[in-house]
């Protein structure tokens, strides 16, 4: 099985479940990530440095336990969301892991607990925003949780047996590019990058600028404009849909940004270039 086949397998799981799933190397650096419903909640949480630090430390501790035990585990993050960590084992060694954000228990009590935990750690967080984000999380009973966990264990075993992993040491800048390129349709903040790549925001921005001579935001915007051009030419999708697929907050902002880069509004550019 090639790594592209593994990516397709994880994409299919994501499409069916709506859950965020990631394949990480043994230093918790992303090999492949697929966003899910938890992303909006995590994006809000990660704006708080204290919360972000708690999330990263929790992931590192759980992964270390899984690496030592070499067995799959479900743990609860500092904010009450259940996550699964499953080792990818080759030659009796953990060389990667699957990380899947499952969700929370059914019922309003579980929702309220997530919000109150977050507010207790960072009172400056917007409570109404948090409530709205928590409403979008998966909720399940124990039987549903067991079913998803069994499926994830089967996927991890399949990847362990059939995956082809090369020893790679990508630079921090390359890790940033890899994450952005795979998640262009999602809202991506420096806090998100810091969480997924496990480096501080300052380290990320400094290394990226040093490696590529432009800022992370400049690179991300360039890639989104490139994608929007491709969609404008090759599809008949409306501007609102293209805007969303390229990760822009709204169509008006997309149009302003597109014109800034091309000197033409997207509709005009499409007519002249299609």
Structural features, described:
The protein is α+β, with helices and mostly antiparallel strands and 274 residues long. The protein folds into two domains: 3-169, Beta-Lactamase, CATH 3.30.450; 214-273, Arc Repressor Mutant, subunit A. It is built from 13 helices and six strands. Strands 1, 2, 3, 4, 5 and 6 form a six-stranded mixed sheet that branches. A hairpin with a 5-residue loop joins strand 3 and strand 4 (82-90). Helix 2 packs antiparallel against helix 5 (127-135). It is globular. The chain starts with a helix and ends with a helix. The mean pLDDT is 88.
Number of strands: 6
Class computed from helices, strands and strand pairing: alpha+beta
Distance between the termini: 38 Å
**N-to-C SSE series?**
HEEHHEEEHHEHHHHHHHH
- At the first level of CATH, the class of the largest domain is Alpha Beta
Gross morphology? globular
Summary, kept brief:
Helices cover 60% and strands 14% of the residues. The chain has helices at 3-17, 39-45, 49-69, 108-121, 127-135, 142-162, 172-182, 190-197, 201-212, 216-234, 239-245, 251-262, 266-273; strands at residues 20-25, 30-34, 73-76, 82-90, 93-105, 139-140.
């Amino acid at each position: 099985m090639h790594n592209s086949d593994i990516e397709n397998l994880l994409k299919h799981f994501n499409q069916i479940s709506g859950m965020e799933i990631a394949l990480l190397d043994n230093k918790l650096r992303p090999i492949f990530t697929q966003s899910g419903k938890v992303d909006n909640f995590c994006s809000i949480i990660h704006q708080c440095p204290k919360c972000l630090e708690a999330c990263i430390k929790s992931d590192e501790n759980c992964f270390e336990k899984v690496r030592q035990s070499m067995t799959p585990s479900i743990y609860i993050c500092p904010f009450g969301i259940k996550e699964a960590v499953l080792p990818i084992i080759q030659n009796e060694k953990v060389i990667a892991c699957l990380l899947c954000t499952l969700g929370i228990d059914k019922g309003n009590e579980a929702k309220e607990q997530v919000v109150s935990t977050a507010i207790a750690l960072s009172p400056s967080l917007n409570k109404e925003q948090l409530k709205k984000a928590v409403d979008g999380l998966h909720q399940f009973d124990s039987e549903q949780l067991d079913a998803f966990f069994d499926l994830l264990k089967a996927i991890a075993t399949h990847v362990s047996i059939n995956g082809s992993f090369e020893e790679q040491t990508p630079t921090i800048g390359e890790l940033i590019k890899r994450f952005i390129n795979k998640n262009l349709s999602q809202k991506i903040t420096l806090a998100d990058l810091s969480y997924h790549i496990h480096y501080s925001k300052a380290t990320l921005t400094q290394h990226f600028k040093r490696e590529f001579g432009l800022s992370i935001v400049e690179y991300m915007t360039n890639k989104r404009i490139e994608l929007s051009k491709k969609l404008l030419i090759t599809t008949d999708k409306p501007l609102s849909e293209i805007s969303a697929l390229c990760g822009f907050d709204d169509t008006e902002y997309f149009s302003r940004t597109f014109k800034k880069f091309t000197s033409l509004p997207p509709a005009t550019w499409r007519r002249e270039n299609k």
